[in-house]
Write a structure and sequence with these properties.
mainly alpha, binds fe (ii) ion, Ferritin, 5 helices
Length: 169
């Protein structure tokens, strides 16, 4: 039982580190978007959700008598994906951003489904409830991206064809 609880605490800390990465990635992305107001607005609202998710995870970790400080060590875990979203692109920032965002959301969805199963196994119904709730938010973001992916890609291609520099973002 102690092993199970410690494993669950570790997964909650991993999820917290993941949300920190998500916040940085989304923040970097939103600052680069100029021509896609709908996408920018959806990202802004998910940044607010992401901050709230971090707080809800902190509450779970604290309620379980564990600590979420000193988790910076884990922060490098998702660096590669973050670089995809925040790094230098060949002009197609917005399309790569959607690609990275959609990918990241699915990693989050899997992480929370694992956490729900783990919390249920450990008998922590409140953590299971919170992770279920967060999972719904990640699914909503993923399905928004899925619904708008074609439209954003085509808008980018049309803008790009006009050879305008600002079209790339
Ligand atoms: Fe999230």
């Amino acid at each position: 039982m102690a092993d199970m609880d410690e494993r669950l605490n570790q997964w909650l800390r991993d999820a917290h580190a993941m949300e920190q990465q998500a916040e940085q990635m989304l923040d970097g992305l939103s600052r680069r978007i100029e021509n896609y107001p709908e996408l920018a607005a959806r990202i802004e609202s998910h940044i607010a959700e992401t901050r709230s998710q971090k707080q809800r995870l902190e509450a779970c970790i604290e309620r379980r008598g564990s600590s979420w400080s000193g988790m910076k060590d884990l922060a490098g875990q998702f660096t590669a994906l973050m670089q995809t979203a925040g790094g230098v692109f060949a002009g197609d920032e917005v399309v790569k951003g959607v690609l990275a965002g959609y990918t990241f959301e699915h990693m989050e969805i899997a992480s929370y489904r694992i956490l729900v199963a783990g919390a249920e196994a450990a008998g922590d119904t409140e953590t299971a409830r919170v992770c279920e709730e967060i999972c719904r938010e990640e699914e909503a973001m993923a399905s928004w991206l899925e619904d708008h992916m074609a439209e954003i890609t085509q808008a980018y291609l049309i803008r790009h064809a006009s050879e305008s520099d600002t079209a790339k973002r």
